[in-house]
Amino acid sequence: MRAVMRIFTKFLLGLMLVLAVACARTPARGPAPGPGANPQLGDSQPHPWSSGHPYGHDVHGIDISRWQGDIDWNRVRGSGISFAFIKSTEGGDHIDPNFRRYWNEAAQARIPRGAYHYYYFCRSGAEQAQWFIRNVPREIGSLPPVLDIEWTNSKTCPRRPPPSEVKREASIFMDIVGRHYGQRPIIYTTVDFYRDNQLGDMRAEFWLRSVADHPRVRYPGQRWAFWQYTGTGIVPGIQGNVDLNAFAGTRSDWARWLQTRLTR
């Protein structure tokens, strides 16, 4: 009997040792790969955030263009997505072929949506504003228009104008579009473009791209309403990767923001 007990004791000690080693080799878990407030969302290449991550924000949304293909908008809404910015126009003669379809489908799914214009440096701000107005409906309940302004590798327009021209033409675009829709456009931009053109002195609400660190690190002192934190997001209802964005405040802040910033 004692021999049996000794064998059993050795077995238990061995099992405990195996478990202890296994646990020691298991890496500590960090933030969830998707937003904590929206557990159905994810990221195929989550970033190891060091100065604050976006996952605890209450309100998350997407921005999309033709490359997202067919979208199941009801699944998107059910996953916790609270808003969508849809590419509408580029320059003075291009419209995203899926814009009108996405615009209508998002509305049918009751997802607040707005349109963004991709800026082209070989057209004036006034020309581009008129092209945007020509193609984007002025509908009650729409999010404010967005001016997406960033450096591009355009073969048809490789120029990089000086900051004075960039801000002058962007302001003209924003003034014309703002008067038409009754809402001043939001500026979407990137770290290098913001820095190179000193955009912090523009009169605008900002949507900032920052996929490697918190905006307070990449854009010191700049207030923001939206943070694009990944281009490899996972959202039920959308095939492949999609851009994910966080709103700066709580759900109550979001409701108040919508009250003041929706087109009327």
UniProtKB/TrEMBL annotation:
Region (Disordered): 29-52
Gene3D superfamilies in the record: Glycosidases (3.20.20.80)
Protein name per its UniProtKB record: Glycoside hydrolase family 25 protein
Superkingdom, taxonomy of origin: Bacteria
Keyword Transmembrane (UniProt): no
InterPro entries for the chain: GH, Glyco_hydro_25, Glyco_hydro_fam25_subgr
Listed GO biological process terms: carbohydrate catabolic process; cell wall macromolecule catabolic process; peptidoglycan catabolic process
Keyword list, A-Z: Glycosidase, Hydrolase, Signal
MF terms in GO: lysozyme activity
SMART domains per record: Glyco_25
Record bears the keyword Hydrolase: yes
Family: Belongs to the glycosyl hydrolase 25 family.
Signal peptide start and end residues: 1-24
